[in-house]
UniProtKB/TrEMBL annotation:
Residues 103-237 form the Transmembrane protein TMEM132 second Ig-like domain. Residues 252-341 form the Transmembrane protein TMEM132 cohesin-like domain. InterPro entries: Ig_TMEM132_2nd, TMEM132, TMEM132_3rd, TMEM132_N. The keyword Transcription regulation does not apply. Residues 24-86 form the Transmembrane protein TMEM132 N-terminal domain. The keyword DNA damage does not apply. Keywords: Membrane, Transmembrane. This is Transmembrane protein 132B.
Amino acid sequence: VVESRGGIMDSIQRFSNLPTYLPASYHICNADVFFFLKEANQDIMRNSSLQSRVDSFFIYKAKLPPVLNVTYGPFSVEQAVPLDLMLTSASFGFTNKFTFNWKLKSHIIDSSIYSNKPKIQTLFYIAGKDWDDYNSAESLPCVKMFAFLESREVVASCRLTGHLGLCVAELELSPSWFSSPPPLVSEETASLEGITVELFYKIYTADGECSPEDAKWENNIHAGQDNEQKALPAMERIGSIIVYPNQDKLKQSSLRLDENVVIRLPLNPVREGDVVTFHVSLADDSLADQFVLRIRTAPGVKIMDIRVSDADQWGVQEETDSARSTATITCMHNDPNPESR
């Protein structure tokens, strides 16, 4: 820029110290709540161009497909926001029943069960629905829960209902699943660590009642036959549960401390107030006549009692502190017969 005053030429060039930018304005249509975002440490040169401009926005609540409108001077253009950019489930497409960021949440009620009571329960509920427009007469979707163990499968369904949009899917595993472990699970693993059952779910619409445990559905999955429900989206994983042997006949886990001493303990879950018994014995190949066992418990755990299974064969001396949190046990073998160990 050149200026002339009183015949004296000032050849100092004057430039703005602010970057140029495209002065376009944005507006979001069909969205109840939305926010335009700006990075806390955004580079000032990021939009220093008259050719393009990049901005971020977050659509928090919308029941119709949001539309982005951009205006630049006398020009205006708009485009619908692609559904795949929205945090939503595509199970129902566009609907006025669900906001676009709604999600189906799941919670396994008990992640550890026993083969004599193999009942699985999962709570499903909706997060993100526009409950201000809730109509008790409207029909919410159904949820079908799948339980898989290798090639074995069982299903159950429930319909989301009520003002909170929740339901509990409940199924019972077949006893034949536990008469023998699945092909890839050894009998020892099944008895000590339990058997893992994977849980998945699908959402589907239904005019009437949700279908119960449905053998026809299962057969179509395995046989690949055509079915109107086959085109639904892929299953979503819920999680897994552990099925332990009969609680009354639960086998014990063995922990070998060294070449002589073996400790056996039950695998069933321990809750506050429970009494747990640990069995201490010598290994089958041990020739030891005496050993010393030192015990230190975790916080909140106390040593209730120390008992000898056969006082004629083993003599035991114990020292326990007043808090009953530590103990030293000296065991001496009285019977010289090695088989009695």
